[in-house]
Records
---
Amino acid sequence: MLATLNKYRAAFSVGLQSNLVYRVNFAIRGFFSFFHLIVVFILWGSAYAGSPVIGGYSFAQTFTYFVALIVVQFMIGAFNEDYQISEEIRNGLINQFLLKPVNYFAYRFSIYLSARLVTGLLILLPLVVLFPLLKAHLTVPLDAWRLGIGLPALAMSACIQFGIAYCFGLMSFWFLEIQGLVILSMAIESVLGGQIFPLDLLPAWLFRISQYLPYYYQMYFPVAIFTGRINDLTAALTGLGIQACWVVIILGVGQVLWRRGLRLHTAVGG
Amino acid sequence: MNFAHYARIWLTSARYSIVRTLMFRGDFFIWALVELFWMAVNLLMVSVIYQHTSTVAGWTKYEMMLLVGTSLLIQRYLMGFFWSSIFEMGRNIRSGNFDFFLAQPGNVMFMATTRKLDPDGLMNSFVALGVVVYSARQLGLHPSVADIALYALMVACGVIIHYSMLVLCIAPAFWITSAQGIEGSYFTLSEFSRLPRAAFKGLAQVAFVWILPVVVVSNAPASTLLHGFDLRVVGWLLGITLVWFTVAVIFFHRGLRRYTSASS
């Protein structure tokens, strides 16, 4: 057990080191993300000028939602994991894992965790620098239950984020080029995951449907708990249950794709 | 080196790009679908916002759709005619493959930025145009032929400005070869082009309306369709088109002098 843990701890540490090399890139990317907040501020500020409450929420609540979204994205978002996995399959680099007592999923997940540790800490940098400017427009509810449900929701969102990227990466066993598929799914995720607008602003029936889809639990769900867009404890607990189901389903699909994909895989050279 | 010579070169590149697209039809459909979906996402955002409010900075829903449609139209043309070539330029400068363009029979900037066409982007420009026409109909606009010609000219200016901005975002690769991710700055800027000009106040107005052209590029043609010809708006757009294109040409050629190639 300890030996197994040590194996992935080594992978984590290697991931940490290779991600630290790109710390400046990540920091720049973080600052650029906050540039996006200017667009949000101007667009939603103008919309709120016409009506002080939109969908039952004030401007500060909506703005806080978008700020939290950026922070959470850097903490748990799958950036290019799908692409990395796809590259390893196409280049044959994956062969080395087939010959070693290493679980590829666990190996990749360890690297994903280390990468998010680096980006998650780096996003705090622009947040701290810009906090004096943002402060007046932020409002964060401080109920204890939000932390109790929000943190497991965040952890499961990370599993869903990584799980979906893992599945897309494994598609390379079947298709030569997955970039188009990945970007198409990114577009779907960005809408149904609540990155373009808070999902509760959708027409009620569409919002209801979105709650049963995995995208809702990728980002929107934990952010909505932390920023006060979900205020009902029972609804939050139900959400947590559905989220857990999606984690199991997505990880299961990942396992099936891995087994089936390996049957098709041909390793050449050495 | 006359116009006919460049037209012939461009046509040859276009033919090559189309033949290539026909070879990878599946790819073409997926990418066309991707772009179509992203356009739908932008329109969806507009309609969701207007479900909860009736005006944004004084713009009604279909006026906003017209603005977003115009912004998408300009972007589709940029994607269709120039994006792949300019995007690859950064990579080529870093890898040394840029040498290839230096040996070609024409101006290096022309050769490097017009080599590849993306038919999927061009196809979707019809969808963006459809959005503009639909919004204009909903608004009960009846533009004259002269208005439409003026709109087309202003969209063309918009494409030239975006082209110049993109070149300016990629050309730093001549100086700082490790500056990957600099391309992303263009996307951040282009987000502003979908906002109405009246929404910008104070410092944001200075930065995004007066200094950077992103907001004017889409607002000028849209407001010409909505409110008719205004010499100040048209003059301003033509002026900044000239300025930005000149700056991009000068910057590119300065960078080109720094290009040292890369040995293997």
---
Amino acid sequence: MLLDYDRMGWLRVMLLGITGLVTAFLLLPVVFIVLLSFGSSRWLAFPPPGWTLKWYGELLADPAWLGAALTSMRIAAIAAALAVVIGLFASFALVRGEFRGRNVLRGLLLTPMVLPVVVFAVAIYAFFLRLGLGGTTVGFVIAHTVLALPFAIIPIATALEGFDKTIEDAAIVCGASPLEAKLRITLPSIRIGIFSAAIFAFLASWDEVVVAIFMASPTLQTLPVKIWGSLRQDLSPVIAAASSLLVLLTLLLMIAAALIRRRFSK
Amino acid sequence: MTQPFLAIRAIRKTFGSVVAVHDVTVDIPKGEFLTFLGPSGSGKSTTLYAIAGFQDPTSGDVLLEGASLLSVPPHKRNIGMVFQRYTLFPHLTVAENVAFPLRVRRRPDAEVKRKVGDMLALVRLEGFADRRPGALSGGQQQRVALARALAYDPPILLMDEPLSALDKKLREEIQAEIRRIHRETGVTILYVTHDQEEALHLSDRIALFRDGRIEQIGSGEDLYLRPATDFVAGFIGNSNFLPAECLETADGAATIRLADGSVVSGVRANHDFGRGQKARLMVRPEAFRLTPDHACAGLAVEFVDTAFFGERRRVVARTASGQEIDIRPTSDMADAHRGGASGGRRVFFDPAAAFLFPA
């Protein structure tokens, strides 16, 4: 290979340096936010004059923040569940089906991942206004399910592609009905893909802000929307605390996804 | 006439304009081990999958004890099947795999437990009950698959090239296991393979497929010693085909003239040949002798190469017309050796062990 890491000599040092800088550039803001959430300064001064858990106390005492966090979780959970169920059916069609327009359908289902989010947000906002779904949980869930769908389809379809259909046929010869064979044999065999799909679909909704801003109403706000809204009013360290919690859950889920992969890939 | 146990009646399968299986008809008595042998694409697997229910035949029927199987959905056919690929359920243990067909039939726990024990004993994997399929070798996985397929005492067991992914030594070992299990259970087995040695080793009867048709059906000996066509002769065992011209046929025997002009009478012919018709004479490599005995035909050859294979010696010889033939003399090996690696000489064969086929 042209760029062989072992043969790069001094270039290796430079590569490591650049990698380090890029990583720091990407991660430092997050680290700062987390540090500031524990700082005692009212004005988000850095370095903080002292350390405190006060902002977390305020955050948890404020029903508006708590409500936003619960709303986020509820919507993300429902959207993830829907995305996984729809993703399962879609994956069976995309992987096993033989019909005209299969590739078109695949492209269509994955579009939400590449379409500029703001375009999708405006479109669905206008559409939902006419249907009276703007500002409702149902509207929120539908919008986020569409966004989460590609993140569910990709891991499930990949797992299904790696599963030999002959194994399902063997279950049918053994006396299981086609549905029973899928439920008892195929689904457990692709469960890593399903778990991954659930986690990534949940995260796709959990940290989504653009569509959420369009969908939100004063009484229905997700955590990212609440953070965004609060940020425009004042610069309270409570926002840093809320952001840190957002990051924490994301991190935990990513670790969970990695652990599941590792455990079952053996 | 008594009703056959399993009757395959004029099964035909077309894919678009391609006919994969041409009206295949076979009667299979209970307890028989019948092998569908043939090159890939000859329709043997398609026929098997029609019986299993994964391919709907275009026309024809499959009758089990007189009742049509085709209207029964695959999961209710109560047929056992072992596939070419490894099909153990990866998330279940060996015991759970074998128990699966019994569980879907809602058999009582005690029966399931006893049957799983019996089946693992049958395939000699008692100590592996709690292993996952991923921790087993390919041969062990296929034995578990066999145990799973037999756990519910199916009347028929279908096997679709179950050993093709295994290496030669393991294959022979499991062939012996399959023979033993067939003997012990008495299950009727339909076995698909493209390996003629495997077919000869395992089967009571062999149905040799070619281009979607059964070319010949019979015991291994029938196919080997009495091939109906040159295709059968070429597929089962090794064969030499010598160009010949037919001079006369009578009562399944023919008199012919070989390329070197020598006339041989008494070769076997089960076709009608016209006088002067071009034909091919099939002689098995082991039918050749290096010394003449009574009623032998001779052939002038030149030895090109001799190779030693332990129990047998293989000689590559060239006829006067330049055709290379394969000779595996069963006796007088010392003589083959004495003749040296090369040089002109004559080899002999019994005309009654030679078959004449149309060119």
